[in-house]
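Our preliminary data section would be incomplete without showing what the modeling component actually yields. Below, a chain of 213 amino acids is followed by its predicted structure, encoded as tokens that our downstream tools consume directly.
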Amino acid sequence: MTTSIAMGLPGVSLAPGDHICAFYRGPAERDAILVPYLREGLRAGDKCLCVTDDPLPAESVRELAADPGHLESLTSSSTYLLDGFFAIDRMIAFWERAVGRAVDRDGFGFVRAVGEMTWALSGRPGVADLLAYESRLNDFLPRYPQVILCLYDLRRFCDGEVLMDIVRTHPAVLISGQLLDNPWYVEPDEYLSRHPGIAVPAVDALGAARAVP
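Predicted structure:
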């Protein structure tokens, strides 16, 4: 299996099984990560699964794909928040179906997925389980030849404790164009035993956080 995969950013390479949190500020920085990541995947013949919170990045992403079979552009409302709530097992089952279908049925040798995570600040039922979900996702990554990139807007995720736990649940961190092995990563069993009920803050307006009940 390939052990080094171009990410699309200068000097940045990925490895199968990578689960990366990418920090950015605002839509322009998000797309500066998102679009090259997907463009490189399409160039390499990977299956690309892209979940975003709003239609603007989805529109720019669709323009990348001459063959829509290589790129699925989805929204948070149809995946993470299907039926208006978040459920960990349902979302992991979504990835299992989507990635498994790409590999086992459609014959793709590699899948690169990306999720914009601002939906977790919506205050919808279940979103406080974000960090448990991110931790459990690490047990799913080795099942297929894949990488998953999670996009976090630092203008919106303002709570320092939550940011630290986002870091603890990802083995790798992308910030300022550099991909770093994460010395603060905690394995799922240990993390979940330490943090049985940590809450994620919702955001009423940019930078104004409140606790999810």
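The longest helix spans residues 26-44. Confidence is low (pLDDT under 50) at residues 199-213. Preliminary results of this kind motivate Aim 1 of the renewal.
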